[in-house]
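Q: Two folds, back to back.
A: First:
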Amino acid sequence: MPSAIRVEGLAKAYGPVRAVDGISFDVPEGHVFAFLGPNGAGKTTTVEILEGLRNRSAGSVEVLGLDPWKDGAKLHQRIGVIPQEFRFFEKIHPREAITYYSRLFDTPADPIAILKRVYLEEKADAKFDTLSGGQKQKLGLALSLVNDPKVLFLDEPTTGLDPQARRGIWEVIRSFKADGRTVFLTTHYLEEASLLADDVAIIHHGKIIARGPPETIVAAHGRPDRLRFEAGLEVARYLSSRIPFAVTAENHHVEVEIREKEDAIKVLAALEESHLPWERFSVVRDTLEDVFVRLVGRMDDGVIKSEAA
């Protein structure tokens, strides 16, 4: 599949500080790509380079086959951008905003058709300052579609939204992918990345420390599944002496690592034999957020430098 975005050895230095330190990745056309990292990791610098807003110190970058810095004017006609916490003229109507943008891009646009794409047509004539947070973000998404872009850069599009509004934005992003558009998503919501992204890259201290589909990253870096139940320390001690699996206890919960379904049966049998009190059990699996926290912490501790999953 052709690449919509291709990055090779990208670096950006500010004096002795390397904000981006030789990263490489590519994003196939029609994919949702989530770019994750803690504050100061190099996300914003990378995105601004991809958008043609900042020049690089080294490496090569192509977006839709164009160099973002050298071919910025041409590229900006083919991409859509929504910044974090989108803001606009307070008294403008969404219908007017789309007309305004269409004139800026010198391209025809049907305001109602575009607003329908983001489920905002009923607010076509409402003033911007009367819209909810989710509706304002939807207008930002609508404006990013005015020039019929092939690539969309969405910078934390659901930050500060309530769960219902966030899910509304997710549906819009899924519709972009269904159209064959490429979405470059930055987010602090790891659940969001897991649900939406075909591919994920985690950046920290300017380096990519993990890369791949969310489930692949979790499988490669997550802990084994655990059987978890409510019980005290005496249960943890008993199990540690009876079964060959790792047992941990914290906050009145006991967890036992299991790798096969038969392991769970052995743990439950041992619990019954103990005649000790315990309640409710469940299987716990690491999430992308668990892995993210662990990888970032390990890099801060000097355990890992960089990694491509």
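A: Second:
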Amino acid sequence: MDRVVMYIDMDAYFASVEQASRPYLRGKPVAVVGSGKRTVIVASSYEAKRFGIKTGMTKGEAIRKLPSLVFVEGRNNKYVDTCVRIHEILLRYTPEVEICSIDEFFADLTGSLLLFPSPADVAVAVKREIGEQFGITCSVGIAPNKLVAKIAGELGKPDGLVAVEKDDVERFMEGLPVESIPGIGRKMGAALKALGITLCRELRDFPVSVLRRRFGIWGDYLSFMARGIDPFRAQDPGGLPKSIGHSMTFEKNIGDRMMIRARLLELSEMVARRLRKEKVVAKGFSLTLRYPDFTTFTKRITLPFYAPGGRMIYETVTALLDSVRLKDAVRLLGVSAFNVRRFAANPSLFGGLDREERLWRAVDDVNDAFGECSLHPATTLLCARRHWVISPAYRPHKSYPYRRQ
């Protein structure tokens, strides 16, 4: 039986959830932000997008573009809970569901098709259930693999449904701009354009040897993807995250290194918590700094071993900080982990978990039950109370405890 994958992408997710739960916002241009004065836009409604309101804009930039823009403080628990409930809907149609991010899902329908008339019928039913239960819309792509399903879903936005049959994949891909392929951003697109490549059919027909010389192993991947072949399926069957990170913009610029270190400890523990939730470890870490003039730079390091927890992450990024001569106070700090792999727990001599691992598992359980940062390192008490909005790339665990009865 041919494989059938369904991609589900929620339309303007954070903003749509706010509009659905607050009827007075419907039809208005809405931007979801944090509670701080210096917060940036995390998501915007389609009414706002039409006026050029984009993720990452400051409130000042957005107001200058659209004075009537309505700002709404983000509600993390609401977005996570809605994501988990959507996951529960999808599980009624197939057990093979992957939460790709807080607003994206992949569902493998291959083993469930005998129970339903067609994949399109499943997609229509899913869209209807999500609309009735949450008052929001989603776009769906159906194809023989995740790559083409995602491209199809993006082309159908908003509130669309695009299905691509196995025999139509190459014809579907050939007329698309190369930027339609996930992973091809502005820089890669410019590099391909310099080679005379703007469409997928041109990328498909371009000599692979030249692509390989220019882009390394990515040259082979690009050639495969231009044909609608997913080169990553065998390498990443479990949806392993490529990186996990957190950043925060401060109410006031921070110049005191002790305060910067306290913030880095907070960010390191947030990243470590995400790593534990995903059951992965990392050995690559990066520190991002942004100055008041918006100059931003990132320093990276790859360790010879996989870091076991937040303390090691903190020590690594503070070492990166110590190698930097700050030219000014900082406006933003970010910590990210990359080069990840699955974590295999090694039992201790007595067959139990070591003390630190038991401690952090208990801390995670408390924070799952009572909210982020209910328990946190004492050093972070130096930091003022803050309210941040999770990134749309955040991937809740499928058994997120917020849904406990």
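Q: And?
A: The first helix runs from residue 13 to 21.
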